[in-house]
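User: Hey, my collaborator sent me this sequence without any context and asked if I could get a structure. I don't really work with proteins. Can you help?
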Amino acid sequence: MERHAKIRAALSAAVIAFLLVLATQCAFAQSDSTQSLAESLKQREKDWRELVMKSDNAALNQYMTSDAVLVTPRSGIVEREQWLRNLQQMQASSYTLEPMRVKVYGDAAVVTCKWSLAGGSAERKINLEGILTDVWVKQDGVWKLALRQGSPLPAPPPGPTP
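Assistant: No problem. I've predicted the 3D structure and written it out in structure-token form, which is a compact way to encode the shape of the chain:
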């Protein structure tokens, strides 16, 4: 009887150890998958930046959901078609996105980063910087930009007066 109890205890311990190893492997696989997905989304952001620099609206159009919007304090809610027209007229000379933070939630992801953009035309120069929050959604296996929220950087705290 005591021998059977020892065998059952050993088998239970072996099953528990196996399940722990299996759970650990699944967690590492999921972590690697999430990290790979985060890198893919960072690359989508970089590709977007390059397309803005080239004023390639046809390609930018493919990166957006059909109901994508831009939200900024200055412009409010900008619908997709107007957003594309604005990008076409912008003539960006520099555009940075760093550092990027990516959080994935199934078929949706949020990318946040600091950004700066300079350019414009001879009549109107632009020099902007702020914080971006982008919402990407997976549609038909492709990650597309659904919403971009741009906010200005907070003003530096007032310094001492001389």
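In plain terms: DSSP finds three helices and six strands in the chain. You can pass these tokens on to your collaborator as they are.
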